[in-house]
Write a structure and sequence with these properties.
Oligomer: heterodimer
Shape of chain B: globular
Shape of chain A: globular
Largest sheet of chain B: 6 strands, mixed
Number of strands of chain B: 10
Strand content of chain A: over 45%
Radius of gyration of chain B: 13 Å
Number of strands of chain A: 11
Radius of gyration of chain A: 13 Å
Strand order of the largest sheet of chain B: 2-10-9-4-5-6
Structural class of chain B: mainly beta
Number of helices of chain A: 0
Structural class of chain A: mainly beta
Number of helices of chain B: 0
Helix content of chain B: under 10%
Strand content of chain B: over 45%
Chain lengths: ~120, ~110
């Protein structure tokens, strides 16, 4: 069965960097687009970034553009989120999520990891 | 960027009642690329509906989605105790603008 497990969260100071990882198993990782979605404490969901199944195209929200970079290593079945210049407003649980259909570009998210908490202290 | 608005913010109902949740988009959402998710405290979201009206795998038929253009609805025909949660709509039609979520509707026990 599909399993997604995030890691790399923790406490970091304003201006610092962190790299999140998402280990995938139970499906053909190289065939699916992947996303990062975050949720600040007590708030709603915010889409962060999306990468195509083959890594050739990437998109990110305006709120993180130029600071966060999504990437993947299909040989390691792992998704990454490199987060630089972190701000207190980046404090959130970060989820990785798989698109529903293989090779699709426009698609919803049907499998999610449990999330990893990132806290940016001022 | 497509902005989604959900109403009401909170819906207070009793088990067995019908819940109707609304999601309105600032622009037409092409091909009805609207999804609905359920989230319970401390858990990741769960996909309920995609393509505006198609139930995801394993979702009970008391959940139904409808609408087109800019107005979409999620209906829960008879609320079960496990349905009290927060519900989010999402549009996924406008990459690279992003796959934006609505602010959510909380369904709580009256």
């Amino acid at each position: 069965q599909v399993q997604l497990v995030e890691s790399g969260g923790g406490v970091v100071q304003t201006g610092g960097s962190l790299r999140l990882s998402c280990a995938a198993s139970g499906f053909s990782f190289r065939s699916y687009g992947m996303n990062w979605v975050r949720q600040a404490p007590g708030k709603g969901l915010e889409w962060v970034a999306f990468i195509w199944y083959d890594g050739t195209n990437k998109f990110s929200a305006d709120s993180v553009k130029g600071r966060f970079t999504i990437s993947r290593d299909n040989s390691k079945n792992t998704l990454y989120l490199q987060m630089n210049s972190l701000r207190p407003e980046d404090t959130a649980v970060y989820y990785c999520a798989r698109v529903r259909v293989s090779y699709s570009v426009y698609d919803c998210l049907d499998d999610w990891g449990p999330g990893t908490l990132v806290t940016v202290s001022s | 960027e497509i902005v989604l608005t959900q109403s009401p913010g909170t819906l207070s109902l009793s088990p067995g009642e019908r819940a109707t949740l609304s999601c309105r988009a600032s622009q037409i959402v092409s091909s009805s690329y609207i999804a609905w998710y359920q989230q319970k405290p401390g858990q990741a979201p769960r996909l309920l509906i995609h393509g505006a009206s198609t139930r995801a795998t394993g979702i009970p038929d008391r959940f139904s989605g409808g609408g087109s253009g800019t107005d979409f609805t999620l209906t829960i025909s008879r609320l079960e105790p496990e349905d009290f949660a927060v519900y989010y709509c999402q549009q996924y039609s406008s990459s690279p603008q992003g796959f934006t979520f609505g602010p959510g509707t909380k369904v709580d026990i009256k």
